[in-house]
Automatic annotation (TrEMBL):
Cofactor(s) named in the record: a divalent metal cation; Mn(2+); Fe(2+); Co(2+)
Organism phylogeny: Bacteria, Pseudomonadati, Pseudomonadota, Gammaproteobacteria, Oceanospirillales
Enzyme Commission code(s) on record: 5.1.3.1
Annotated residues for binding of a divalent metal cation: 34, 36, 68, 177
Protein name as annotated: Ribulose-phosphate 3-epimerase
Principal EC category: isomerase
Catalytic activity: D-ribulose 5-phosphate = D-xylulose 5-phosphate
Cited function: Catalyzes the reversible epimerization of D-ribulose 5-phosphate to D-xylulose 5-phosphate.
Organism listed in the record: Marinomonas aquimarina
Chain positions recorded as substrate binding sites: 9, 68, 144-147, 177-179, 199-200
């Protein structure tokens, strides 16, 4: 059953103890680390950059780091995150003047690439770049903050994205981000998601392992 990846968003972690928080959530069974980058321009919040990604690598984190760029413009930060040890780099098409080039930069740097779609953004930009994405990330909240409520229309969009992936024949992960918890993770999986970002649902609880175990139990059906 593996192939479902649980990706805790460190946006909801205690930043004063970030290394320890990441160690703890990985020890609790998380698969990859979701790393939210916000620039107070593309989204109305300001978070962390490449130095913090590098610091996690220096701390000894070997798990994949899934960098979600909510920034505009994206290109210069792509290079910085490649240097800093990112594994996946995903960005919003609105943040790039030349989507194909930005995706290519990510792959040329040895990272896995992806496009992110806001709740009201159609999937049209995927049409000519399906061969250049390793991940499609659907936002189930408007980007900028953790702890928001899951937007149910995303379930239909997941089904649409799943169909596009299956028809393409490419090996592309389908990630869902925003308001995901043990309560709706099974529904997201049934709609086609295979990679689940959860911030407050995991870091907001005292026992990370209990939540992650419960998520896996929901996924196992
Ligand atoms: C929102 C971020 C999310 C956020 C999810 O813009 O992209 O990754 O941390 O947080 P929760 O799971 O609390 O909705
Ligand atoms: Zn995110």
């Amino acid at each position: 059953m593996k192939d479902f990846l649980i990706a805790p968003s460190i946006l909801a972690a205690d930043f004063a103890r970030l290394g320890e928080e990441v160690d703890n959530v990985l020890a609790a069974g998380a698969d990859i680390v979701h790393f939210d980058v916000m620039d107070n321009h593309y989204v109305p919040n300001l978070t962390i950059g490449p130095m913090v990604c590098k610091a996690l690598r220096n701390h000894g984190v070997t798990a994949d780091i899934d960098v979600h760029l909510m920034v505009k413009p994206v290109d210069r930060l792509i290079g910085d995150f490649i240097e800093a040890g990112a594994s996946y780099i995903t960005f919003h098409p609105q943040g790039s003047e030349h989507i194909d080039r930005s995706l290519q930069m990510i792959r040329d740097g040895g990272c896995k690439s992806g496009l992110v779609f806001n709740p009201a953004t159609p999937l049209d930009d995927l049409k000519y770049v399906m061969d250049k994405v390793d991940m499609i990330l659907l936002m189930s909240v408007n980007p900028g903050f953790g702890g928001q409520k899951f937007i149910p229309a995303t379930l239909d969009k997941l089904r649409e994205a799943r169909r596009l992936i299956d028809e393409s024949g490419y090996d592309i992960r389908l990630e869902i981000d925003g308001g995901v918890s043990e309560k709706n993770i099974a529904e997201c999986a049934a709609a086609g998601a295979d990679t689940f970002v959860a911030g407050s649902a995991i870091f907001g609880k005292p026992d990370y392992k209990a939540v992650i175990d419960q998520m896996r139990a929901e996924l196992a059906g």
